[in-house]
Design goal:
This protein has 198 residues and is an alpha+beta fold. The chain folds into 2 domains: 13-59; 60-197, Immunoglobulin-like. Helix content is 22%, strand content 35%. The strands form 3 sheets. A 5-stranded antiparallel β-sheet has the order 6-9-2-1-12, with no helix packed on it. Strands 5-4-10-11 form a 4-stranded antiparallel β-sheet, with no helix packed on it. The protein has a 3-stranded antiparallel β-sheet with strand order 3-8-7, with no helix packed on it. The longest helix is centred in the first third of the chain and has 44 residues, at 16-59. The radius of gyration is 33 Å and the shape is rod-shaped.
Length: 198
């Protein structure tokens, strides 16, 4: 079963040099494996963080349920205040309205402002949490009315809206997710209208 080797020149070379080479190869392989494992772990962590941020930018946004404007007959039947009833989009995490900004772009220019407690009125109070940082929407059934006064609010430097005027409104949450709403004022506003749908 086993061959007996009588020729001493055919024996395997065994010695301290071979052992040192073998140990060096094992050490190099272990170090390379450690570097690969660390790099893979870092890339996985970075990919997970990027995926979570990308998901938040897409899903953590507001949904505009309805829009209306309050008409001031004493001011040439122009719209002096806007009401946005907002909710969180499906699949969204809780959204703090105190960390949300609004941007108006129209024929009177562009203005960006933060929503503050003066702009936010509760329409329904189910599941709305009042925190130190403001109103937080936590559930799809939550509804909050965001009222923007165009005439007296010092944070909003924008003119009143006239008949037929168009306005683009963009809400941006803390995660960077945006919701855009196009508003068009009716071409005819009568003196009997106190509020119009936009």
């Amino acid at each position: 079963m086993f061959e007996t080797i009588f020729d001493e020149e055919e024996r395997g070379q065994v010695g301290i040099g071979t052992l040192i080479v073998f140990i060096a190869m094992v050490l190099v392989a272990a170090i390379a494996a450690g570097v690969l494992i660390n790099t893979a772990g870092f890339l996985q962590t970075q990919a997970e963080a990027t995926g979570e941020e990308s998901t938040s930018q897409v899903s953590d946004r507001l949904q505009v349920v309805s829009t209306s404007g309050e008409v001031n007959q004493a001011n040439n039947d122009e719209i002096t205040s806007l009401n946005f009833v907002v909710a969180i989009a499906p699949g969204s995490s809780p959204i703090d309205l105190q960390q949300t900004t609004a941007e108006f772009i129209g024929q009177d220019g562009q203005v960006t402002f933060d929503l503050n407690e003066n702009d936010v009125d509760e329409v329904t109070t189910s599941n709305i949490i009042g925190t130190d940082s403001g109103q937080v929407l936590t559930d799809n059934s939550d509804r909050v009315n965001v009222n923007v006064d165009l005439t007296t609010n010092t944070d909003v430097d924008y003119n009143v809206l006239s008949e037929g005027e168009r306005l683009t409104v963009t809400f941006t949450t803390a995660t960077g997710a945006t919701t855009t709403k196009e508003i068009r004022v009716p071409t005819t506003i009568t003196s009997e209208d106190s509020s119009v749908r936009l």
